[in-house]
Design goal:
By secondary structure, this protein is α+β, with helices and mostly antiparallel strands. The protein has helices at residues 6-9, 15-21, 25-29, 33-50, 58-69, 78-84, 89-101, 130-136, 145-167, 212-220, 246-258, and strands at 74-75, 105-108, 124-127, 173-178, 184-191, 194-200, 225-230, 236-238, 241-245. It has one domain. Helix content is 44%, strand content 17%. The protein is globular and about 50 Å long.
Length: 267
């Protein structure tokens, strides 16, 4: 089961709400979605982890979840997470496997097909729903909403890709792209319908350096289609890159994944 998609939510879809609370069904129907999500996380800890005997040290696992939340949307360094929550690396690796087995999290591999450059080797990590991620990630007086919202927007895009790819049986494999000198694209979808490259930024303004990762990807894979998703309101097209407001992009994802021809500006 996947969280709801923007298409399923239709007119109820509210990007600001989804960035805070995700798109689990009850996150849109409960009067207090923050309380619901806290209960959801606690229930998983208790019922799925402890009662199934997946780990005997629930306290260490709880600390691990918090530490893992700071890796959301980032290249995963298991040794660093293990140090942060004072557990052995092999224990942390086991905990990440538990999250994947319970479908609570995903590790996204690097796209290396016919690579023309030296590529990164470690996967990126995501909890499966933006609201679950926000419920797990600690926030203190020195944190701002923007500290978490960038990763939350990436998470919403990923969960839409996963759900729609599965529902429509489109056959994409999902990757990210990162060179050894840190030129990166957040998501690469690869399958019979083509290659899609997507960069996601919470920013309301687009500046040219933000497009460098997509431009580099298109130089290596000129047959690809590239999209820059951001928090502004204006649609643009530059250097074969569709630049789309996030609200528009979520509405258009099914058409984009199905391979509708032409620029997204024409849809």
């Amino acid at each position: 089961m996947h969280p709801l998609t923007a298409t399923e939510l239709r007119n109820d879809h509210d990007l600001r709400h989804s960035l805070k609370y995700g798109q689990l069904p009850c996150a849109y129907t409960e009067s207090d979605p923050k309380k619901y999500l806290a209960s959801y996380v606690e229930t998983y800890l208790d019922e799925e982890v402890r009662q199934e005997g997946l780990t005997r040290n629930l306290g260490a696992f709880s600390r691990f979840l918090e530490a893992a939340s700071f890796s959301q949307g980032s290249v995963l360094n298991i040794s660093s997470v293990a140090r942060e929550c004072a557990i052995e690396r092999k224990v942390a690796e086991n905990y990440f496997m538990i999250l994947e087995d319970l479908l609570i999290a995903h590790r996204i591999p690097v796209f290396t097909k016919k690579a023309k450059r030296r590529m990164a080797s470690h996967p990126k990590f995501y909890f499966f729903d933006a609201g679950v991620y926000r419920a797990i990630r600690p926030m203190g007086p020195l944190d701002t909403p923007e500290d978490a919202e960038g990763a939350a927007l990436e998470t919403l895009v990923l969960q839409e890709f996963l759900a729609i790819n599965s529902a429509l049986d489109l056959g994409y494999n999902i990757y990210y792209w990162r060179t050894s000198n840190n030129v990166e694209v957040d998501f690469v979808l690869y399958g019979e319908k083509g290659i899609l490259a997507i960069e996601v930024k919470r920013t309301g303004r687009v500046i040219k350096p933000m497009l460098n990762g997509l431009k580099a990807f298109l130089r290596d894979y000129p047959m690809g289609r590239a999209y820059f998703v951001y928090g502004g309101k204006r649609r643009m097209y530059e250097d074969n890159i569709d630049i789309l407001p996030a609200t528009d992009f979520f509405r258009m994802i099914p058409s984009i994944l199905k391979g509708s021809s032409g620029s997204a500006l024409e849809m």
